[in-house]
Design brief:
Largest sheet: 7 strands, mixed
Shape: globular
Number of helices: 10
Number of strands: 9
Oligomer: single chain
Radius of gyration: 22 Å
CATH class: Alpha Beta
CATH topology: Rossmann fold
Structural class: alpha/beta
Helix content: 25-40%
Distance between the termini: 65 Å
CATH architecture: 3-Layer(aba) Sandwich
Strand content: 15-25%
Length: about 300
């Protein structure tokens, strides 16, 4: 038995069960420090990028901030006077000294924030385009938005192993791992939300596990298990889990028997528009030809010939 995907006429299909996500984040909050290694690692990487921005941001919102992992770094940054952490979990928000709020329904006034930061939270939103618009509207002119999200390559090993195991045991396959956004789609959404100077890139982070079952345990501890509306309503059969663990180990284990788990982290940066920002040149206004810089011959099809000797 599987659940159904709900449709919202205004914003398209509802992929994630947000109520279930809130419940899982609430349960996970009690032991969050035992499972926050990935959150902390990515927060460090995000903060390294933020350190390259030579600007003060007195009032910062930390969206989906869990128990304050990102906020604790933001508060050490020179020029930051106040950090507002939000989370859908009451326990997590209280631990961070923040407020309970849904990333899809932000409580901030228009033009009230100097920066919005979000670490590994926005990939769970159903209406990501709407969330990005709310973020941009909440920023002051020339305000900064910086975020990390999980991309489509995340947990590719687990996804493959569960699919093959279920096919072998039951003769069919159901969605067992939550879907995540594609890198190129994220870039298009940033442009659609009218962010200025958007930059989107990604990297793969590999975490080694003693066994696939330990990975599954960690995902539950993170509150990051499958939360799609069309997920199977019944618990996964033990035979499927054991077969998936075997396939995972046989396919991906190294010489020491440890297995990798891939997390694709997408980094996003953009600015609320302001007249002082750099503007792209109009087509045909360049002072030098790209073909000359590449030492190629420009031809009508848009293709380049081999480099000149």
């Amino acid at each position: 038995m599987t659940g159904n995907t709900t449709n919202n006429p205004a914003n398209g299909p509802i992929v994630f069960d947000r109520k279930l996500l809130r419940q899982r984040r609430e349960r996970a909050a009690a032991t969050a420090h035992d499972y926050d290694f990935l959150l902390r690692d990515v927060a460090d990487r995000l903060f390294d990028r933020l350190s390259l921005v030579r600007r003060d941001f007195p009032l910062v919102a930390d969206l989906g901030g869990a128990h304050g992992v990102t906020a604790e770094r933001l508060r050490t940054r020179p020029g930051t006077e106040h950090v507002i952490t939000t989370d859908t979990s009451f326990t997590a928000a209280r631990a961070a000294g923040g407020i309970v709020a849904d990333e899809e329904f932000l409580p901030f006034a228009k033009g009230s924030l100097d920066a919005v930061i979000s670490n590994l939270a926005l990939h769970w939103t159903n209406d990501l385009p709407g969330a990005l618009l709310q973020i941009r509207n909440a920023l002051k002119a020339d305000g900064l938005f910086m975020a990390t999200l999980l991309g489509g390559e995340t947990l590719r090993e687990l996804r493959l192993s569960l699919m093959e195991a279920e096919m072998a045991v039951t003769g069919g396959a159901s969605p067992r791992v939550s879907p995540f956004i594609d890198l190129r789609d994220m870039g298009a959404l940033m442009q659609r939300a009218n962010f200025a100077l958007p930059v989107v890139d990604s990297e793969l982070i590999t975490v080694d596990y003693s066994s696939p079952l330990k990975l599954m345990q960690d995902l539950r501890g993170m509150g990051a298990a499958n939360a799609t509306f069309n997920r199977p309503m019944k618990p996964t059969r033990k035979a499927v889990l054991l077969e998936a663990a075997k396939i995972y180990h046989d396919t991906f284990a190294d010489a020491q028997g440890r297995v990798p788990a891939t997390f694709q982290v997408i980094y996003v940066i953009g600015w609320a528009p302001h007249a002082s920002q750099q503007k792209p040149l109009k087509p045909g206004s360049a002072a030098a030809r790209l073909a000359d810089a590449l030492r190629t011959e420009e031809i009508g099809t848009g293709e380049a010939t081999a480099p000149k000797e």
